[in-house]
Design a protein that fits this description.
heterodimer, A: about 170 residues, mainly alpha, Four Helix Bundle (Hemerythrin (Met), subunit A), 6 helices, about 80% helix, globular, B: about 475 residues, two-stranded antiparallel ribbon, transmembrane helix (chain A)
């Protein structure tokens, strides 16, 4: 057990617990804030593992943009202070969500552990540099990367189109 | 363009690596701790000074003395204000979310300090028998760290607005958040050009790459965009819509008082220093001495502790710019501000980044190796071609845009009608310059009530009677 191990375990536990709290709290805004803690400590996990670029991009994209937008949308619509009984999900939904979550965890563990579980990496001399990540993304994996970009673009245009049609329908009626 | 194309020719090779050029191998942990403490104190003293500086300068601009009672030149005024703030009552609204209400000023206050960890204040110096750079730390992605920390700092504002449990803070917080996240995009894009020029995101490497030419010259457009966005990012006038006193009382910190308010105040001023320090590092050569001073006595002033002096001077130039803007410009309207950010700054900065990518590609020889020799200077042919193409496109776009603007202005220049009926809309409207008031008719309304025309001194005025029924 090195200090790095201990820090990694602590940050990982924080990530897991805050993720759990994000889905179980009854305060709408607090749920978003727990999600924030979860994503932020995940960035901490990456940094402990020596991947500064991935960690900081995680912070920049998820903490700095996505959760801010979630909070923003909440506050533009309805973000009361205090618990909200009407956001509660019925029992069967909670059960289904728990089952699905557990199933996904098992699936990921079963696929990821045999592949990389035995791999040993020396973190004191990091081998993956920013340039290697760049050449990986824009060289070997450029097509998946571009496909993902197209997917995001389609989602953006789709959201725009949906909101436009709703607005048009509302103005007509 | 000729100046910048000469600059492109001078900027030669790509730096070998993106790793920091600062060497921290001889820096024990206690030296790092001392450096952190010194940076903290430096920032606190700078904040005390800048508040006084701002009030005095604005006082000069408005032809009044400004604070001049406490200490020499009123220097201790900020200290007195700080003591006053600490002694004030700390109020928590009854409807507030207590924990988050406490947390928000802490986030805003502390996050502001973090970015300074990667700002290089100077070159290598001897400190307690250790050779160490005047910089707390550096990582290969240091500039991204500043952007990430700035975006975490936004939570201080949005959570303060929400947790106050009151309408004005919520509106102010929302405005402020929208403003900061939209200007952050343009800011990040403007910095991409610097990454392309220096081939690195590490601050010490960027400063080292500017030893022959500051990036303000080749990346002049990025500099302009950055300066605009840094004002938007710090919520300062003319972009301080989040706390527009006339509209939102105090914006997100309306409900805050005492030390918690002081934390926001501190955070805001340190943020000013952060963006100014980043601008210094990215565009003005960081801690390096200005061109002619740097040449004195074989670079005597370009080493060691002198860096702090040049860095501080350059940073305070930006601070003066902030104060100057505040002293001379009125607040923009919110929709104009957002339109400017999204519809102008972001697309045009994207186009600029693409142009810089082409220029850099040509410079590094991806598009052919032919050179043209003009006197002592050798230029890469493809670089010249690309710069020329970019210049022609920029000129053409500017020409078309200007033509359209003139056409639009001409269309708007319809002279107002000569006569105006001041009551046409149901409420009195004053005439525009050069307009005449319409001669009033004697009988204004049906149903018996009649207008009364009064002739006095040659002008005819109508006294309109309201039918109150």
């Amino acid at each position: 057990m090195t200090i790095r191990d201990i820090v990694f375990v602590v940050v990982g536990v924080i990530t897991a617990l805050s993720g759990l709290l994000a889905v179980s709290t009854r305060h709408v805004v607090h749920a978003a804030l727990w999600l924030l803690v979860c994503l932020g400590s995940l960035a901490g996990c990456y940094i402990v593992l020596g991947q500064e670029l991935v960690g900081i991009v995680q912070l920049l994209v998820y903490v700095g943009a996505i959760v801010v937008l979630v909070l923003f949308a909440l506050m533009l619509t309805r973000a009361p202070i205090g618990p909200q009984p009407d956001v509660d999900a019925p029992a069967w939904q909670r059960l289904a969500a728990t089952l699905l979550g557990a199933a996904t965890t098992v699936l990921l563990a079963l696929t990821a552990l045999p592949v990389v579980g035995r791999e040993q990496v020396d973190l004191d001399t990091p081998v993956v540099s920013t340039q290697q990540i760049a050449s990986g993304i824009f060289g070997t994996w450029v097509w998946p990367f571009e496909l993902l970009s197209v997917l995001l673009l389609v989602a953006l245009v789709g959201a725009f189109a949906v909101s436009r049609t709703v607005l048009r329908r509302r103005s007509r009626s | 363009m000729t100046l910048s194309s000469a600059a492109y020719g001078l900027l030669g090779a790509l730096p070998a690596t993106d790793n920091p050029s600062a060497d921290f191998s001889d820096t024990p942990w206690w030296v790092a701790l001392i450096k952190a403490l010194v940076i903290f104190v430096y920032l606190l003293i700078s904040t005390l000074l800048v508040i006084w500086f701002e009030r005095r300068i604005i006082g000069r601009m408005q032809q009044r003395p400004g604070p001049n009672r406490n200490g020499p030149f009123g220097l201790l005024q900020t200290l007195a204000d700080g003591a006053k703030l600490m002694l004030k009552e700390d109020i928590t609204p009854a409807k507030a979310d207590k924990i988050i209400y406490l947390l928000a000023p802490l986030i805003a206050g502390t996050m502001a300090f973090v970015s300074f960890a990667i700002i290089p204040f100077g070159g290598e110096v001897w400190m307690f028998g250790h050779r160490t750079p005047l910089q707390l730390t550096d990582v290969p992605v240091a500039v991204l760290l500043v952007l990430a920390v700035a975006s975490v700092g936004v939570y201080g504002i949005i959570l303060a607005g929400w947790s106050s449990g009151s309408t004005y803070p919520l509106l102010g917080g929302l405005r402020s958040t929208a403003q900061v996240i939209s200007y952050e995009i343009a800011m990040g894009l403007s910095l991409v050009a610097i990454f392309l020029f220096s081939g690195s995101m590490s601050t010490s490497q960027i400063v080292a790459a500017q030893s022959s030419l500051w990036y303000i010259l080749p990346a002049f457009f990025s500099f302009a965009v950055y300066v605009i966005t840094m004002v938007g990012e710090t919520n300062r006038l003319p972009f301080d819509l989040a706390e527009g006193e006339g509209e939102l009382t105090g914006g997100f910190h309306t409900e805050y008082s005492s030390m918690r308010f002081a934390m926001f105040f501190l955070g805001e001023y340190i943020n000013m220093f952060t963006v100014a320090a980043l601008a210094t590092t990215m565009f003005l050569g960081g801690w390096q001495a200005p061109p002619f001073i740097a040449a004195i006595n074989n670079g005597m002033f370009n080493h060691g502790w002198w860096g702090i002096l040049w860095f501080t001077i350059k940073m305070w130039i930006f601070i003066f710019g902030f104060v100057w803007l505040r002293g001379s410009l009125p607040r923009t309207r919110y929709d104009q501000f957002m339109r400017f950010g999204w519809k102008f700054l972001i697309p045009i900065t994207l186009a600029w980044v693409v142009a810089v990518a082409f220029i850099r590609g040509a410079q590094l020889g991806f598009l052919g190796e032919g050179t043209v020799t003009v006197g002592p200077l050798g230029f890469n042919t493809s670089t010249l071609v690309i710069v020329a193409v970019v210049a022609v496109i920029a000129l053409a776009v500017a020409w078309v845009w200007d033509g359209r603007r003139e056409a639009r202005l001409a269309a708007e220049q319809v002279s107002p009608p000569e006569e105006i009926d001041p009551f046409a809309g149901g409420h009195p409207v004053p005439p525009l310059p050069g307009q005449r008031l319409r001669e009033p008719s004697v009988a204004l309304t049906a149903g018996g009530s009649s207008g009364e025309s009064v002739v006095s001194g040659g002008t005819v005025t109508a006294v309109k009677e309201e039918d109150h029924g």
